[in-house]
Design goal:
146 residues, alpha+beta, GMP Synthetase, Chain A, domain 3, 2 domains, 3-stranded antiparallel sheet, two-stranded antiparallel ribbon, 5 strands, elongated
Length: 146
């Protein structure tokens, strides 16, 4: 199974603009810019999308874990905050904080905490953030060198 998204950036870093499109078209030429990443722009940005992906993945995974243990939640609400810091290597997402609130009839606090901790480490996006990244890069309009 594969999921796809595309990005296009036109222009320089600070004066340029970009769009993001997902295969599902939930994002379709959705704008992003330098200002939306590093200032107070109102468009989306990659870090916000990582936070959204992590929040969604975690909420769904915790719900599945709780349900699998016989404790179907009424809800699992997750806020994810991706923190960025300018380091020597450049801007870096150096942490994600998950704030979780759930209503789960019949589960005690210790069981809930244990399951939440396991889900924090085990959900797909948590594991992705530790994954190997591979790449193919092609410079168009320039003859390839041997």
């Amino acid at each position: 199974m594969k999921r796809e998204a595309k990005a296009e950036w036109q222009g320089g870093l600070q004066d340029g603009r970009g769009t993001l499109t997902t295969a599902s078209k939930v994002l379709s030429s959705t704008p992003y810019s330098f200002k939306s990443r590093f200032a107070d722009g109102t468009e989306t940005n990659p870090e916000e999308l990582i936070a959204a992906a992590h929040a969604g993945c975690f909420a769904m995974a915790l719900s599945a874990a709780l349900g699998g243990a016989g404790h179907n939640p009424e809800y699992v609400r997750t806020d994810a905050v991706a923190s960025m810091e300018k380091l020597e290597a450049g801007w870096t997402v150096n942490a994600i904080h998950l704030k979780v609130r759930a209503k789960v009839p019949g589960v005690d606090a210790a069981t809930f905490d244990k399951m939440a901790q396991a889900t924090k480490d085990g959900c797909i996006i948590s594991r992705l953030l530790k994954a190997e990244i591979t790449m193919d890069a092609v410079l168009e309009g320039v003859p390839a060198t041997a």
